[in-house]
Design brief:
Two copies of one chain form a homodimer.
Chain A: E1 12-13, E2 22-24, E3 28-31, E4 50-55, E5 71-77, E6 85-88, E7 97-98, E8 111-122, E9 125-129, E10 137-144
Antiparallel strand pairs in A: 1-6, 3-4, 3-10, 4-9, 5-8, 5-10, 6-7, 8-9
């Protein structure tokens, strides 16, 4: 695991403000085949291995209707990531780029987003394909993929 | 503004846990034409009005390279949303659905995600099209659209 959180040549760290502007609730937990960050895929694939998303109470009731979507957007908390880098060197070669021009897990608010294929839903557990995160990653949210979702609420002024 | 946070027929609220599992930093602020939630579009459109995203220090340096992407994923904090509904009635007609089967702003962690078209970047300000959020919404993250991004980091075991 050496080197997981070290700064590489050319990377720039800042002193970040305290993370107290808003608070998160972990609403579930993600199980994947990857026990170390050094094993995780760089990007999830919709034909990747089946992963398991467990929903905690009191949120299980919020799953009702999710089974009608083929693809789901998953938001999760990258709880092992440092949050202070503004420039990163993903290739470890000193060629750096700003954090917002990367999908690296290292970011001021380390929220991962993935589009996954829904395989099965049963009793508060989702089986999905397409994740790339570490085993045990905390879950923040699930939403229907925007391309499959039509708002059921009536239009408002801004829609016209 | 009456009724913005009331519970409608058939909706179900829970007692949510304290939101202390992790803390967020607001890294910027979004300006849009919509001063009330009752005016916001239900879904952003890539040909919608130009909106402005201001990045706060010390994060401006993290924008370097973002100008090479046509589409950006934006994460923001829906700071006026209640967080306790597990069933919602978007049509206000008593027909309810679980929160995770909706893209409503009301969710246990009210994080909005949008794919926007990048119009311009200058001095810590992005101009973009495709947002649907309230004027003044706090910014959480910016990432290249996953469909336009190729990891620059070398592959790992999970990629094979």
């Amino acid at each position: 695991m050496a080197g997981l959180n070290e700064i590489r040549a050319g990377e720039v760290a800042v002193e970040p403000p305290a993370a107290t502007d808003a608070g998160l609730i972990f609403i579930g937990r993600i199980s994947t085949p990857w026990a170390s960050r050094l094993d995780c895929p760089r990007q999830g694939q919709l034909d990747g291995p089946v992963c398991r998303i467990e929903i905690f109470e009191p949120w299980v009731a919020a799953l009702d209707g999710i089974e009608s979507f083929e693809r789901i957007e998953v938001l999760y908390w990258l709880d092992h990531s440092r949050r202070d880098l503004v420039r990163q060197s993903p290739g470890k070669d000193g060629n750096t780029r700003g954090t917002f021009a990367l999908r690296s897990p290292v970011r001021p608010n380390p929220i991962g987003t993935a589009i996954v294929r829904l395989v099965r839903v049963e009793a508060g557990i989702l089986s999905v394909r397409g994740l790339d995160c570490l085993d045990g990653t905390p879950l923040l949210d699930l939403k229907p993929d925007r391309s499959q979702f039509t708002p059921t609420a009536p239009p408002q002024a801004g829609d016209f």
